Amino acid sequence: MINAAKLGLSSSCRDNVFRKAPLSFPDFLENLLQIKRRHMENLNASTIQQNLFRYIIAQVGPKQAVSSICEALHINKSSAYNRLNGSKGIDLEELSLLVNTFNVPLEELLLPDARRGLFRLDTVGKQFRTGREHLEQVLGNFKHFARANDFRLWLCTDELSYFQCMHFRELALFKLFTYASINWQLPYTASLKFDPDQFPERAAYDELMVPILNQYNRIPTVEIWSDGIYDNILKQIKYFEQAGQIAGSGIVRLLCEQLEQLCAHQYDMATEGRKWAILQRKPYTKLPGGTFDLYYNTMAPVGITLLADSQLLQGVFLVFDDPNFMFVGDASFFQYTQNWMSNLRKKCIKISLEAEGTRRRYFEHIRAEIGR
């Protein structure tokens, strides 16, 4: 947490800055000058302006940003564009107006190295009470980043993506059941035998999982997959079957059949380099979907890392205690992760659109593992 006293603020100014109450222009200027005197090396006018507009765009979306800025500053669209692209600077009065209008935290703009925390893990101190809470968080993150038209997702993984499981209701609910039972240890799983038609949170599939799948399919992705990405879910099916926590062998067969169908669907998507929902495509009809750049990683351990990239919004999601994730918004960490993924991709084999022989062998090996 930021120590307001160390910023050099008076007690009255501290209260205004950190509770984000509306500031009069004299108060705003006093706060700014106090911070400037103590942390001159951290202030750069162009950086502050860039951070300010990036924050506003993230709040209202790119389409509404220009009109919202025009309304706040009482200027025309041309003047707003000039400020957005940096060709015209904003003065202190405009900065004060925008900070108050959009409730922008001053410390985020002026002291980017003094953020409350580099990593954010939302489950610390606040455990999930339902799987729905987690899914709402995932969908909210997709919608937040999807505001940027150039949004692209990078994914490095050594196990089957949860998004991919959402092609099938029963498979997706089984994964939610495993998380609820193993990771979150939700009370309702204590004596529960998995049955997709009786699962307490089955309504979450249509209400949240299908929208998540649609978001994932819509955006371009660069994905780096390792060997054995199906191993974990196959072990989970076997474990819960042997523990007597799956309601019948018919459900086990259904889950394995859906994994086989998913594998075939992934092969088709890699062949065409596009994504679409498995149950939505009609014969000989290509549905619009995001590009699917798939790479085969033969050597490097990767865990599960997602990098969200756009001109306006950037961040890294590190899976920690799967499916929980830590979010990192630090620019230097983002750049480090992007460089790591780019370098790793150069050492991998691209199996979407090209390398048909390697692609076929990769997915045939997966199908053989499922059939064992």
What is the H/E order?
HHHHHHHEHEHHHEHHEEEEHEH
Strand order of the largest sheet: 1-7-6-5-2-3-4-8
The helix content, as a percent range, equals 40-55%
The number of distinct helices, counting runs of at least 4 residues, comes to 15
Low-confidence stretches: 1-21, 36-42, 113-118
Structural class by sheet pairing and helices: alpha+beta
Q: For the CA atoms, what is the radius of gyration?
A: 24 Å
Number of strands: 8
| Average pLDDT score | 82
Termini Cα gap: 52 Å
Can you describe what's shown?
The protein is α+β, with helices and mostly antiparallel strands. Helices cover 51% and strands 10% of the residues. It has 15 helices and eight strands. The protein has helices at residues 11-19, 25-38, 45-60, 62-73, 77-84, 92-101, 106-110, 131-145, 162-165, 169-183, 204-218, 231-242, 249-272, 331-346, 356-371; strands spanning 119-121, 152-157, 221-226, 292-297, 304-309, 314-319, 325-328, 349-350. It has an eight-stranded mixed β-sheet with strand order 1-7-6-5-2-3-4-8, with helices on both faces. Strand 6 and strand 7 form a beta hairpin. Helix 4 packs across helix 5. The longest helix is centred in the C-terminal third of the chain and has 24 residues, at 249-272. It is globular, with a radius of gyration of 24 Å. The model is unreliable at 1-21, 36-42 and 113-118 (pLDDT under 50).
